[in-house]
Structures are given as structure tokens and as C-alpha cells.
Amino acid sequence: MAGKSSETFLRLCMALAVIGMAGSMLLPGAAFCEPEDQLRPAMAFLKAETAKLGAPEIKGEEAVAGKSAPALFFGDTKMNNNFALVDKVQEEMGATATLFVNSGDEFIRVATNVKKADGSRAIGTNLDPKGKAIAAIKANEAYYGEADILGKAYVTGYEPLRDPAGKVIGVYYVGYPKGD
Predict the structure, then answer these.
(1) Domain span at residue 12?
(2) How far is 99 from 77, CA to CA, in rounded Å?
(3) What region, left, alpha or beta, does residue 79 occupy, with left being phi > 0 and alpha being psi -120 to 50 degrees?
(4) Which of 50, 72, 100, 121 could be stapled to 171 by a disulfide with Cβ–Cβ 3.0 to 4.6 Å?
(5) Are 150 and 117 in the same domain?
């Protein structure tokens, strides 16, 4: 009887392993990781990709969705209205991504794949001036946690974006819609 029980147990374990592998192939990452677990790797990916382009700096101004904003560059690559990098983060990591630039007391989305209710990119919109993320950034700290972005709940990560002198000139953002 003991032999039959262990054989049944082994078959059950093998079946569960096959189901787990199939699930991970159909939904990569989703079978084993929660969005919170994916935030830091997505942030690391965003920062690594920008670092490949060169040091961050502000060079002049450029309109973003009709709003004047400082022009954010990484090396010679202007980020205002440039979606290649944030879209790459979404393709590779499944995360929404944004680069904000500091403009006075505001942080303006200059490159993003976060969508507004009408389906358009949320460029030219501001980081919530009353949110926990901006409070952390103004304290020169990162923020990881829940945030409301344009009326939708997200699990998010925000980190200060500094120029080579250490001045905060913007914000890196990655996030996942809550409940996805």
C-alpha cells in the first residue's frame, strides 16, 4: 500500500509541476511574481537603459502636449516627446514607465506610456502635487507603494533623477495597474 501511495503522490507532484510550467509559459512572470516584486527590476531596467544614452541634463525647453517644459536629455538623446525608451520598458518588463522633468514646483511627464482616459499618452500632465511620491522626491528619497495616477490605482516606484552634480532634475517612474 505504501508503494501505491508514494506512486500516486509522485504523479500528483509531476502533474502540478507540468501545470505550473504551462502557466508560466502562457503568462510569463505572472505565475510567480506579484507586481510589487517586479517594480525594482523594472526600475533598474529603466535606469540602465537611460544610462546607456549618457548623463542626464536639461538643455533648453520644448513643448510637451502644448505645455512648455525643460528639455530632458540623456547624452544627446532628447526625451521630451520621445517614447522609444518608455515603450521598451513596457515591452521588456510589462511596466508602465515615465520620465518626469522638474519645472519649478512641478514635475511634468515628458515621456510616458501611461494613458489618459481617452487612450492618449499622458504627456504634459503633472506628478500629483499632493501625493506621497512627490513628497518623497522633494525629500530626495524614492517612493515605492500605491498611487493614484489620473484616477486609476497603480503599484508604483518613483526615484529622483539627478544630473551629474546631484541636483534632482526629474523623476524616474515605473508601475503596474493595480489588480492586473
Answers:
(1) 1-32
(2) 13
(3) alpha
(4) 100
(5) yes
